[in-house]
């Protein structure tokens, strides 16, 4: 009879900024599944939860993870019969997780399975050869398919429960003797929905400074959505209420848009101006740190919405060029024949802007001019 161990690493710092692009506080739940039956036995290894007894497919196992603190999750492996011509077999077909606390928001749960023959290598569990299934818990207590999730479906049962289903399960339940569940911070991809409810359009390989005084660390930028709940409609606005005095502190760098916007408002970005309109936006999830993008942030948004990918997208010195509007993943609502404002100033009377159809950057656009606005936020 095989053993089932529950393993998890203790979290290092649950309050680290969620903008870090890494997997932290990895938690592993190890389950032995043989012949459709799951067995649990005590072990002397470090950081092992001590349990005993047996659980069959369809019965839940309780276990704490880093994001849940002292609250135990209930994890239930699922098997189903897969028909085949002249035959069929029971397959490991999904997992249900219950009793998830809100402290697990913005977390990825990653599932893998192992057998006795190749215990060191995860086996395929769906899509013929996929060995990792990722479920993302959003900041609004819903659950979504995570990175590499083609061939998976996730149902949000409640604010604290989801069911993961392998659309085409491939691992016979009799061949699965260990299942691991890792809990780590969510890794976003371009086109994903961000924490603020916008569309992620920039993913940094290394963290960049962000926040009101550049005192925070971020890895992503999201653009205000043009559809759905509390969607944004691009509007024409003058840059600021003060069109003749240089602020002198605005920057062009990625991550500086929020600081720039606050400086604009502090000087004189009165009602219905580019700075105040952007900062007053709350998005679908009521976040308060939306801003007018800096010059480089605006350029990245231009490249994303044109569908530019690869090195041209990640190279910050690459200027957006002419292309088809709204062809990037999740891009919508951008229009031709207009300039979009950045929050980067260029002298007493001018600020920087950009067209999203041609990519042309205006370096000396009068602050009094009425240009389009699309808020962004860094996280």
What features would you describe in this structure?
The strands form seven sheets. The protein has a five-stranded antiparallel sheet, with no helix packed on it. Strand 20 and strand 21 (361-366) form a beta hairpin. With 379 residues, the chain is mainly β. It has helices spanning 257-268, 274-280, 295-305, 311-314; strands spanning 6-8, 27-29, 32-34, 37-40, 48-49, 53-56, 61-63, 73-84, 87-98, 107-114, 133-137, 143-145, 152-158, 161-166, 178-185, 199-210, 216-223, 235-238, 339-345, 350-355, 361-366, 370-373, 376-378. The model is unreliable at 1-55 (pLDDT under 50). It has four helices and 23 strands.
Query: Per DSSP, what share of the residues sits in E-state strands of 2 or more residues?
Result: 35-45%
Number of strand elements: 23
User: Biggest sheet: strands side by side, in what order?
Assistant: 7-8-9-14-13
CA gyration radius, whole angstroms: 25 Å
How many strands, what sense, and barrel or not for the largest sheet? Answer: 5 strands, antiparallel
Total count of helical runs of at least 4 residues: 4
**Could you spell the SSE succession in H and E letters?**
EEEEEEEEEEEEEEEEEEHHHHEEEEE
Q: Provide mean pLDDT, rounded.
A: 84
What is the 3D form? elongated
Structural class call reads: mainly beta
Distance between the termini: 48 Å
Percentage of residues assigned to helices = under 10%
Q: In terms of per-residue confidence, which ranges show pLDDT below 50 for 5 or more consecutive residues?
A: 1-55
């Amino acid at each position: 009879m095989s053993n089932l161990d529950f393993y998890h690493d203790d979290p290092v710092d649950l309050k680290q900024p969620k903008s870090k692009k890494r997997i932290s506080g990895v938690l592993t739940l190890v389950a032995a599944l043989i012949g459709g039956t799951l067995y649990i036995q005590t072990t002397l290894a470090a950081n092992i939860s001590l349990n005993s007894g047996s659980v069959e497919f369809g019965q839940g196992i309780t276990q704490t993870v880093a994001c849940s603190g002292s609250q135990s999750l209930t994890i239930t492996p699922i098997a189903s019969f897969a028909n085949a011509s002249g035959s069929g077999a029971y397959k490991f077909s999904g997992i249900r997780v219950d009793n998830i606390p809100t402290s697990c928001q913005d977390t990825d749960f990653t599932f893998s399975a192992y057998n006795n023959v190749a215990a060191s290598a995860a086996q395929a569990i769906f899509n013929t050869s996929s060995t990792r299934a990722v479920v993302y818990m959003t900041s609004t207590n819903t659950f979504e398919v995570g990175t590499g999730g083609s061939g998976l479906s996730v149902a949000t049962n409640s604010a604290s429960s989801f069911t993961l289903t392998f659309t085409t399960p491939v691992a016979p339940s009799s061949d699965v003797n260990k299942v691991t569940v890792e809990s780590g911070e969510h890794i976003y991809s371009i086109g994903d929905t961000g924490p603020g409810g916008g569309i992620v359009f920039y993913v940094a390989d290394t963290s960049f400074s962000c926040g009101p005084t550049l005192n925070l660390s971020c890895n992503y930028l999201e653009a205000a959505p043009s559809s759905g709940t509390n969607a944004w409609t691009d509007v024409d606005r003058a840059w600021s209420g003060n069109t003749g005095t240089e602020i002198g502190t605005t920057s062009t760098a990625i991550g500086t848009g929020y600081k720039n916007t606050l400086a604009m408002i502090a000087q004189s970005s009165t009602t219905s101006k580019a700075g105040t309109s952007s900062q007053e936006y709350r998005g679908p999830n009521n976040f308060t740190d939306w801003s007018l993008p800096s010059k480089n942030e605006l350029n990245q948004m231009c490249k994303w919405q044109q569908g530019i990918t690869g090195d041209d997208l990640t190279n910050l010195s690459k200027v957006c060029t002419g292309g088809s509007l709204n062809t990037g993943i999740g891009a919508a609502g951008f229009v031709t024949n207009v300039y979009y404002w950045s929050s980067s100033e260029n002298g007493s009377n001018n600020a920087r802007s950009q067209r999203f159809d041609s990519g042309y950057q205006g370096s000396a656009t009068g602050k009094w001019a009425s240009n389009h606005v699309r808020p962004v936020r860094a996280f």
